[in-house]
Structure formats: structure tokens, C-alpha cells
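Researcher: I'm preparing a figure for a lab meeting and need a structural model of a single chain. I don't have an experimental structure, so a prediction will have to do for now. The sequence is pasted below. Please return the structure as C-alpha cells so I can convert it later.
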Amino acid sequence: MKNLVINTQYMENYGDRNDPYMKFKGGNTFVLPNCGDLNENEVATIVARVRPFITTTFEESNGGCEEYVIGAKVVDRTVKYVEDWESVTEFNFLGEGGSINFMKVTDNREDGWMKKEILERTETWTGDMSTDSKRKDYYQEYLMEDGDIVDHKGMIEWFEVNAPVESEIAREITF
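Model: Understood. Here is the structure written out cell by cell.
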């Protein structure tokens, strides 16, 4: 089996809209799993279909950032195409000419940037040109250290019950 891997470059504007000062800030990896063998034209067609949902122009972001496709290739599923610390976004198509589903799982266990009680964050959405944001039905949920799975709204309650703020923890100090 083979995967189609699409890489993007993200740039952030540290200036303003009229006098931009852009800095490269990484990028994203998007994967269409189990795509089989695709020729160059089929790859280009898929990239063209998914590009509106994975890129951002300078104008669309009101001068704040830009993200664009820097490459696409078909690789064997056994080939390592991202570093262990990177999170990929998988996508698939729903029927002929239909919407595109996206799913990104971010592992927070080692050197994560989210609170330590969060093991993983899973984000799902549908690419849809009929919406202003291009993301329809966006949803995120979290796998917590105790095995609970909570949605974004449930995070506040989970932290209140399971991880009180340090200032709320009584300390006994002896001299």
C-alpha cells in the first residue's frame, strides 16, 4: 500500500500588511492513506482538490500569515516521511466530488506543549468550500491521563475535578 504525502510551508508576518516581515515557522504534513499507485497527473489533481483546505494566502489571513504546498509524493507505507515528534493530518474523500474529511491526532506525552494531563488531542473537520472558514463540523476531543475522553467544553470540568490549580492545594511549610 502507498500513501500520498503533501507538505506545506507556513510563514508568519512579524511586520504589518503594508510592510511585511515574514518568518518561516515550519509547516504541516497531510496524508491520503492507501492511495495506491498514482501517476503525476493524479497526484496533481488530488493536490488541486485539497489545496483550498490546507493553504492560506497572505490576503486570506489579512496579512498575518501564509501557508503553501511545497511538495507532494507517493510513498510506500513503510517509508518514514515525518519525524516522531510531528503530527500528520490524514484526509480522505467522501464520494465523487464530495467533501474531504480531515483528522489530526497530536501526541502530547513527550515534550508536549499542552497541559501534562492531556495525552492526546484529536481534531476532525470536513473541508467545505460553502463555508467561510473552509472547516465544517470542526470537533476536538482529548485523551486524558486517567483514560477519560473529553471534548473541548468538558476540559474545564475535568480539570476542576482532577487537577486543581496549585494555589488551591494546601501546603504545609515547616522551618
